[in-house]
Amino acid sequence: MRDSTRGNTVAFLCDHMLGTLAKWLRILGFDAVYPRRLSDDGLLDLAKSEDRILLTRDRDLLGRRNARTVYISSDDLDEQVGQVLRDLNLAIEDPLSRCPVCNDRVVAVRREEAQGRVPEGVFERQREFWSCPGCGRYYWQGTHWDRISEKIAEYRAMSRQTRGPSDTS
Ligand SMILES: [Zn+2]
Asked: 68 CA distance to ligand 1 centroid (A)?
């Protein structure tokens, strides 16, 4: 059982300005939803009903109706991620565990299962595949992999701890 103060039990709700931040929070392993069209009241309701921290570029939403809100001050993605990690004192404990597109948790699949579902060349080259039960996408460590792992390392350096996901003391 995870302690409730551990990073990955935090859940986020990103406002319509923060789609890229939502995607990267998912890549880092955090639960982050990003509803495209919701009124201010809709956002606040969702934050409260699902116990999510509302990340917003809109100062007017701060502190309204007792929802937990964090005002994101920068337009720059790296600064936004850094602010969330710092302000909430979060560690990156379980990167690449969620689908960047739909936020569901991905699962490792047997290689044969990916055959016919990923491009043939990819299937030939890759050994490991993951799939998302939510949207049916398949993932592998493809051409963007190096850049993504560099980014994760960079963000991990900004976060509270630098330990790896397998080191769970
Ligand atoms: Zn998905």
From this structure: 26
